[in-house]
Amino acid sequence: MVDVREKLAQLNPSSVRYDVLPSGAGSTENPYAMALGFVPAGMGRDLLEYLYWTDGAVRRGAAIYQGIAKVAMGEWAERMRRHADAGCNYGLAESLAKFNGDRSEATTRQRSILQARVAVARDNLWPEKLQDKLPILIPILLHTMKRDKEVDTNEKRAKLLGMTEASYRQTWAPVYEWMLSRMIDEEQAAARAMEQALRNEAA
């Protein structure tokens, strides 16, 4: 199977267009550029371009950053929502128990479970000022995906983020690790979609 990542690196800036559908049989267009056009728009295709297409970062750097930032802020908001929901559920149970004077074992046990869920959701929260660090964190993530040794340790990443390694490990490492895993998954899915487009074209 052709490694689509290697082929992307061979494209020149004029090979890829997104405003037209790929041509039909007999086209003289680059087949790899055509296959890239069938990859769904999103962070995966953005990363595929950024990492392996020479001019991708230059031509679409802002769009790539925006796509990654949108995913990060969406996950931040979802974790905030889960924490708020857990707090509401616990608060409601606590209030009802007090109103009814209910001190039964079953009610006490249920309140303990709900309280524990609040603690778990709180521990899973991302830093409140996530947006302030994204202009540094996203380039770190991109350089990690390029296997840049300048960002290959917690100590180096902490220094770039302007904090101690201990603070980084406690607060920002979970964000970095979640985002990196998501970015790798998205890029791999985009590469598979491009490979499938090439197979369909060859059939």
Q: Which range best describes the helical content: under 10%, 10-25%, 25-40%, 40-55%, 55-70% or over 70%?
A: over 70%
Question: Biggest sheet, open or closed, and with what strands and sense?
Answer: none
Shape annotation: elongated
Strand fraction equals under 5%
| Parts with pLDDT < 50 across at least 5 consecutive residues | 15-28
Keyword list:
single chain; 203 residues; mainly alpha; 73% helix; 0% strand
Architecture overview:
By secondary structure, the chain is an all-alpha fold. The protein is built from 8 helices and no strands. It has helices at residues 4-8, 31-37, 43-52, 56-100, 105-123, 130-145, 154-161, 165-202. Helix 4 (56-100) crosses helix 6 and helix 7 (154-161) crosses helix 8 (165-202). The protein is elongated and about 75 Å long. The two termini are 14 Å apart. 22% of the residues are buried.
